[in-house]
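Hi there. Long-time user, first ticket. I'm pasting a complex I've been working with (about 487 residues overall). I'd like to know whether the download I got is complete or cut off, because the file seemed smaller than I expected. Thanks.
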Amino acid sequence: MKAQHHILAFLIGAFTLYAFAAPSAQMFAYGDLARIMFFHVPCAFLTMGFLLVSLWQAIRWFMTRDLKWEAHLGASLELGCIFSVLTITTGMIFSRMQWGHFWHWDPRQTSFLLVVLMYLGAVALRSAFPDELRRAPVSAAYTIGLSIMGIFLSAVYPRIPAVIRNGGSVHPTDTILKNELDHWYKAGFYGLLLLLMFLSIYLCRMRARVTLLEQQLDNDNELDSDGSGSAASDRVVRPVAVSEDGGGTSGSA
Amino acid sequence: MNSTWFSRTKAVFLKEARAEWRTRHGLFVGGLFVLLATVAMGFAAQFDQPSPDLAAGMLAVTILFCGATVVPRIFLAEEDQGTLDLLRLYAEPSAAFVGKLAYATLQMLIASTVATVLFSEMVQLNAWNLSFLYGGALLFGAALAGGLSFTSSLVAGAVNRWTLASAIGIPLLLPIIVLAVISLRHGFGVGRYLESLQSLIGLGGMTLCCLALGPALAPWVWGLSPGSKGGREP
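Hi, the file is complete. Here it is re-exported in full:
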């Protein structure tokens, strides 16, 4: 394991402890629970960030037809899906404690649920196509549609006059923009946001690399079975260890 | 786009219409679904007339599921019969898609109108503003046709395509339902005029988005076959 992995793991652990050590917030039914924002808000930011990143990767795939972008798109959608589920789960816990119910049909909550459903739809669509050549255009096209709706849900829907007049949202929205966080919360929030961003980028790249290596392995197996006929079937398949840089392998087939 | 493209699009549209007229399966299923849904709504609301707010939501849901029943069939039945590749050999991907989309839109416009008339009668609610009621229903129907045509064309090669078409299509279309409900409720006499007008215009914009998305991406999605590097239109 590289030294930077140790540093990243240590920093995430340290900031998690810091989050628990931060003082309780005021103006909350349960001040201690306000610490959930250290994880809830960065997860929400990363969900929307991955939506934009996957849109970029889908467009890049259409422009280049390079399967590298397909692998990256798949990784982004999977991670976006994970972060969206984490966001909605932490939000529901906060909602239960603060307002008495897990679900309020709050415009922010509802629009985020739709984002989760769209991510799940994208993952379901990808899993329906095992062949990457067929999956790539389908997944990229759906991602473009998903991004348009995602932008509508996050930017337009909570601001529709009829929705606002119907009680509006009780979800705190402008706390970060209006700089209303105290220094404890500011340090914890920005620190964890940055660390989770690094972690998610690292995981995304790892996932894409694994997908590309799987594809390479499949192609090699196909070439073996096509090219050398019966000789390929006589070979013994052993586990292959992938080196750090993803290039070399140890163990033989 | 040239005259050949238009003539091929028209040919695909006429093929769909004639095939439908021969069996009348889609019309029958769509009509039956609309009738059953509105009867069920009316039956459920027999003890207490639903408020215009609730009625608008019920009507939007009826049209949504009618779309989910009717539109995917136009694309997926072709794949089941094994004639989709044949169709793509005759017409370039965008022409084949637009021909089918035009037919899906026509079918959804008819279904939305029928659903609105039946629903208003069944729940005994008078239309207060016809342009908002029918404008909202028709635009929502057209948006459903566009969105579900797009997702149905994506899943054409998948194993569980019939379930998947609606499962991935509805999350994309749910945001539009809000705009449709705001327009429809004004049609039943609730809500401010300006807000409802904004929503109707927004619904029109989203409908255009849905109708444009499929034709813009169809050449890339339908033009690619495993192992080929193609995908652009000739």
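A couple of notes from our side: Chain B touches chain A at residues 147, 150-151, 154-155, 157-161, 164, 167-168, 170-172, 174-175, 178-179, 182, 191-192, 194-196, 198-199, 202, 206, 209, 213, 217, 220-221, 224-227, 229, 231 (CB under 8 Å). The helical segments of chain B are 3-23, 25-44, 52-81, 84-90, 93-122, 130-154, 161-187, 193-223.
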